[in-house]
Amino acid sequence: MRARFPIFDEEAEQPLVYLDHAASSQKPQEVIDAIAGFYARDYSNIHRGIHRLSMIASDRYEDARTETARFINAPTTSQVVFVRGTTEAINLVAQSYGEQILRPNDEVLISEMEHHSNIVPWQIVCRRSGARLRVIPITNAGELDLDALDNLLGPQTKIVSVCHVSNVLGTINPIQEVARRVHAAGAVLVVDGAQAITNTPVDVTALRCDFYCFSAHKIYGPTGIGVLYGRDELLARMPPYQGGGGMIESVGYDSSTYADIPSRFEAGTPHIAGAVGLNAAIQFLRGVGEEQFYQHGRALASHALERLAELPRVRLLGRAAHRAPILTLAVDDIHAHDLATLLDENGIAVRAGHHCATPLLDKQEVSSAVRLSCGIYNTLQEIDFFFDQLAIACTRLGKPIT
Ligand code: PLP
C-alpha cells in the first residue's frame, strides 16, 4: 500500500511517518496520474464549448459527479454540488438555505465538538437573521449528549448542524439517530462529514440527513474540491449562493433566471481537474475495498489506545466507544508545539495546536494538544515509533511520562 504513495520514498534517508491524515491525506499515484493525464490530454473548459475537447472535459467532470453520487448513495446526480470543500459546503447551506428560512428567535443547533467551519458560518447567518445559535453538550466520554439534544429541540429549532466524526475526539456520531430526533422536531439536519468520509461508510440515503458536506483532500483526492449533497426538494428551493457564468438560464440587466440544480450552485469555471482527481480517489477507495480502510483504521486506533494505556500521564481527549483513528493527546506542562517539533526531528508529522476547535479545547481545559491521525498507509510499527518518540521527547523536555 505504501508503495502506491510516492511521498513514502523507500530510499529516503529518514522515512516519513505521516500521522496527520485528518488534516489532509497523502495522494496515491493513480490520483496524481489522473490529474496530470487530464491536463496533458483532455483539458479544456467545460459545458460552454462545442469543440471535441470541451465535450471530453465536460464528460470527465460529469462522470466525477455520477461516481460521487454512487459513492455516497445519493438518489440522483443533481443532488451532488461541487464546491471548494467542506467549509464552502457549510457556508453555502448557511447562506442560501439558512438565510432563506431563518427568522428572529429561530434556533440553529451545533454541538460542542464542532470544527470552526461548522461554527462560524452559523454565527454569521444567525447574526444577520436574528436567529439564536445554541450548543448541544457532549458527555465526559466525548459523545454527543442525545438527551440534551432532545431538551434543546423544539418548534423554534430550524437547523441542526453536527459533525459525523470529530476531528479532535475521533468520536463517530450516530447520525441516523440524530436525524430521527431532528426530523421529529421538524428541523433540518446538516452533517459535516469532513472526517467521516475516510473513516466510516457514508450512505446519505440511509443516514437520512438533509445535507452532507465533505472535502476530496481527506479521501486521498486533491485540494480545492469538495461536495455538498442535499435533499433535492431543499436544493431546488434554495437561492443561488454566488452569481456568474454557468449558473444562469437567462440574463438581463434588470433580472436573471437561474439554472437548475446542481449548476445553480456552481458559478464560474469549477475545479475541473479536481473533479477528475476526486473520481480517481473514489476509484482508488473502491479498488482497495472501502471496508479495508475502516478495518485498518480500527486496528490502528485500538493499537494506539493500548500503547496509550501504558502512559497514564498523557491525557487523551475523548473516549468514545465508537471512534475513528484520530487521537488528540495533551501532556501536562508541555506545549504541544514543543512535542511536535521534537517528533518532526524524527520524521513524524503530527498536528499540534487547537485543531480549529478552540471552544472544544477550552472546555477540555487544554490550550494546545498533539493529534495523531491515520490513513490506509500507516502501520502498527509507526504507532509504536510515535509512542516511543513521544516518551523520549517528554523526557528531553524535562517531564518524563513513563
Ligand atoms: N470539519 C471538520 C470536522 C474538519 O476536520 C475539517 C478540516 O480539517 C473541516 C470541517 C474543514 O475542511 P476543509 O478545510 O477541507 O474545508
Write up what this structure looks like:
It is a single chain. The chain has 402 residues and is α/β, with parallel strands linked by helices. β3, α4 (120-129) and β4 (132-136) form a beta-alpha-beta unit. It is built from 13 helices and 15 strands. The strands form four sheets. Strands 2-8-7-6-5-3-4 form a seven-stranded mixed sheet, sandwiched between helices. A four-stranded antiparallel sheet has the order 11-12-15-14, with helices on one face. It has two domains: 2-19 and 289-396, Aspartate Aminotransferase, domain 1, CATH 3.90.1150.10; 30-286, Aspartate Aminotransferase, domain 2. It has helices at residues 29-42, 52-71, 86-101, 120-129, 146-152, 175-184, 204-207, 232-237, 272-288, 290-309, 336-344, 358-363, 380-396, and strands at residues 17-18, 80-83, 107-111, 132-136, 157-163, 188-192, 211-215, 226-230, 248-251, 256-258, 314-316, 326-331, 348-349, 351-353, 369-373. The structure holds pyridoxal-5'-phosphate. Pyridoxal-5'-phosphate binds next to α3.
